[in-house]
Design a protein that fits this description.
By secondary structure, this protein is of the alpha+beta class. It is 26% helix and 21% strand. It has helices at 7-21, 42-49, 148-155, 162-166, 177-187, 200-220, 225-230; strands spanning 26-31, 37-39, 54-60, 63-68, 73-77, 83-87, 97-103, 108-112, 119-123, 260-264, 267-271. The two termini are 31 Å apart. The structure holds a DNA duplex.
Length: 280
DNA sequence: CTAGCTTCCTGATAGC
DNA sequence: TGCTATCAGGAAGCTA
């Protein structure tokens, strides 16, 4: 199944939703499923959020944040199947709608999430960010600090497979299983390779590929709010450009060999055995 | 510190 | 056709 939101998709959601919430006041907070509120307790969450004005939206890795008046912030992680939709109240309701914000323009901001892995956090100004790992998040893929030297410093002593380390949000923020496959394909590195075996040239290839690929995906998945709403907030993902993820058994777009699939540290990896040579 | 496993959760799909 | 089993995965939490 394709559709997990990673950084480029979260950025699409941010850019589409932001103009639909900026300047609006949260007039009512309906918590339909308390499980999606991670912090603080649901009642405090509801009380604090009610009446706040939304000044804008931001993103850090895969985390969305709503900037509120007074410097408070509402964070949201979509995890696997979370969806945001800004729509009039007459818009058809959906199963698995867990949270609704009634906005001052008459529209609703709805949070829909079949698997309920996604979470909200309300962090008041000056309050420590009660999101596990937030302070330890690594640089954005497009951050100029993400250099070959940085990657080498962080990973060159590590025996674990490079694919797994690309998912480590303290190394780089925002990469998941889809784009780690795509990045490794572009950089011609087998996902099974222990980090300690990567060459100088391969670290450079990674440092070059990561920002280029993520930038491309962000740009390629630009979409209008109308298109987003027409697809129920679902049809915005950039699957036409994926070269290996979801294409196991098909031909490598570079050399024609059959793409292979295997489980690497509990995740499905897809790669080209000819272009991305396995370790001995 | 790392490695490896489990948990959460439902929809899509494969197999019979 | 209809049932059941398996798989999908981000991140936390646990054990050794």
């Amino acid at each position: 199944m394709i559709g997990m939101p990673e950084l480029p998709e979260v950025e699409t959601v941010r850019s589409v939703i932001e103009p639909q919430v900026r300047g609006r006041i949260v007039e009512e907070v309906k918590v339909l499923n308390e499980r999606v509120v991670a912090y603080p307790d649901p009642e405090t969450f509801r009380t604090r959020l009610t009446g706040r004005a939304i000044a804008g939206m931001d993103r850090r890795g895969k985390l969305l944040s709503f900037l509120l008046d007074g410097g408070d912030r509402l964070f949201l992680h979509l995890r696997m199947t979370g969806r945001l939709l800004a729509a009039p109240p007459s818009w058809p309701g959906e199963k698995h709608t867990h949270l609704i914000l009634r906005l001052s323009d008459g529209n609703e901001l709805r949070y829909i999430d079949p698997r309920r892995f996604g979470r909200f956090w309300y962090i008041a100004r000056g309050e420590p960010t009660a999101i596990t790992g937030f302070d330890a998040l690594g640089p954005e893929p497009t951050d100029e600090r993400l250099t070959a030297e940085y990657l080498k410093d962080r990973l060159a002593q590590c025996r674990r497979p490079i694919k797994e380390m690309l998912h480590d949000q303290t190394v780089i923020a925002g990469i998941g299983n889809i784009y780690s496959d795509e990045i490794l394909f572009e950089a011609r590195i087998c996902p099974l390779r222990p980090c300690e075996t990567l060459t100088e040239a391969e670290w450079r290839a990674l440092a070059q590929t990561i920002p280029r690929l993520i930038r491309f995906e962000i740009e390629a998945s630009r979409i209008t709010p109308e298109e987003y709403l027409a697809g129920q907030g679902r049809e915005y993902r950039n699957t036409p450009y994926l070269k290996v993820y979801g294409h196991a058994g098909e031909k490598c777009p570079r050399c024609g060999a059959a793409l292979v699939r295997a489980t690497v540290c509990g995740r499905t990896a897809t790669w080209c055995p000819a272009c991305q040579k396995a370790p001995d």
